[in-house]
Design brief:
Layout: H1 5-13, E1 34-36, E2 43-45, H2 46-52, H3 79-83, H4 92-114
Antiparallel strand pairs: 1-2
Helix pairs in contact: 1-4
GO molecular function: zinc ion binding
Keywords: Metal-binding, Zinc, Zinc-finger
Protein name: RING-type domain-containing protein
Length: about 120
């Protein structure tokens, strides 16, 4: 299977977005901080977690969870993902694009060495 730079970046860009609304996670806006569901570990933005908090199943995989009585501040924030958006010297978009370029280079290097 041959992966182009575009397909690798597209694949990894999905991990940088909310699994429910597909909005990009943002360091600067707490509504779009990545929050991880405790049972299935899908990551969604805080805004979507507030919307689904009374549901009983993850919209991604239908695994049961119950967070309706848990304060949102006690749900796990995906800090490694959140911090990947912080770069005081660059804009958000430039930082994400740089990270995607780096991931693409690594994937190509791994694929070449395993061929």
């Amino acid at each position: 299977m041959s992966w182009s730079n575009q397909s690798i970046q597209s694949y990894y860009r999905d991990f940088l977005r909310c699994a429910r609304c597909s909005h990009d996670f943002e360091y600067e806006n707490p509504l779009y901080h990545p929050i991880t569901l405790p049972t299935c570990h899908h990551t969604m933005c805080r805004k979507c977690i507030n919307i689904i908090r009374n549901e009983t199943k993850c919209p991604q995989d239908q695994i049961s969870f119950e967070i309706n009585h848990t304060p949102i501040d006690q749900l796990p924030t995906n800090y490694p993902l959140l911090m990947s958006f912080y770069d005081s010297s660059k804009s958000y978009t430039a930082a994400v694009n740089d990270d995607l370029q780096h991931i693409t280079a690594i994937v190509h290097s791994v694929r070449k060495s395993s061929s």
